[in-house]
Design brief:
The protein is mainly α. It has 22 helices and no strands. It has helices at 10-16, 21-34, 43-51, 59-68, 82-85, 88-93, 98-109, 114-123, 138-158, 164-180, 185-208, 212-229, 232-248, 252-266, 272-288, 292-307, 323-336, 340-353, 359-375, 379-392, 399-412, 419-430.
Length: 431
Amino acid sequence: MAAFPHSPNQTFRRLRGRHSPAEFAAMVRRAAKEIGETVSCDARYIGRVESGEIRCPNYAYERVFLHMFPGRTLADLGFSPREAVRGRSAQRSAPFTHKESDVLRRAFMAGGSATVAAATIGFTLLGDTRRPPSRAGESEAAAVEEAVRQIRLLDDRHGADALYRKAAEPLRTAYALLDAGASRQSTEDRLHAGAGELAISVGWLAHDSGRFDDARSHYAEALATARVSGDAGLEAHAFSNMAFLARDCGRPRESVRAAQAGRRAARSLGSPRLLSLLVLREAGGWAGLADRKACEEALTRAHTEFSRGTAAADPEWMSFFGEAELESLESRCWAALGEYARAARHARRAADLQDPHFARNVALYTAELADDLARAGAPDEAAWAGGRVLDLLTEVQSTRIRSMLSGTARVLVPHQRSPRVAAFLTRHATV
């Protein structure tokens, strides 16, 4: 496939200002929600715009950008005229269109066949849905990367339960593309990174839907891919999720070791936020071991790294990790140490700070708050928070959140003489 040269969009870069690509991507998503648009914007998309790879956005992004910068035209934002990039060569240089992205989203959410999902992330781009190509190219690499973004977007909004089995076929397709080999080393590197990230995303869907053995297998596959390709960022990501899974499986010492391995992998990457997350994973392991001193030391280090701010080296998958997630992970540490009132304060801040775009996380943090309040001796407040979670579960499907709420309900049973608690317990039993 021929390469098409492009010039950096310096204008758009100036408009981003001091925001990191991940922060600016979050601003784009919020702006889209304000006008009823749906875009899966992330740090990588912003990078593609600023590099000039995206010379003109699709119509959905155009509406969002013009809403964000009223009074300006696409030319004012540094983009080329649409008619100048809609020719034959431009079509070939844009490997994964908004329309194809929407097909993938519909295939997942409407329960479309695995064949449709697999074709969407790779095969139809070559005009052949029957077999993978003999050699993978840029289009296939871009399709795998887009599949990762779409899975993360859908998980943020709807939770993992409805997505896990539908995401397995794209993962198989990604590794089939990797096995086919690539036309260039740069393409092969992208395929390794994309397949590894897809394995982690599918592993997370298994993790969040209670399929811990499946999650462990997918995370191990991602780690092996990282080791084969020498990708330290992918290795750090895999270890982060493995530490999280070990904590949820009741293996706190393994959680500590995985988090420490992740920190070693991430040390040279130049991302304080990634180091902060990995230290928080370690703190959770220490809390599970009831080692309060080691936990507090890890929390202090995590806050120190977090305070260094965002960096250009922050991985795009970390768009979820802001102050809200920091508060949530700290709340889990205090809960594991039995300090439920303190845990509730952090969980409340997490729920209040969370961007509504991450509906699954809003439900999760509120469920954490409900459980902490119930165990801290505030049953009425816990019932109120539990009711909010039930409201959110109409659009979020997460076994982990439902299990957490069931535990809260059991703690509240002795307080069912309270009208508010009784109402929550009745509604929870019905749901």
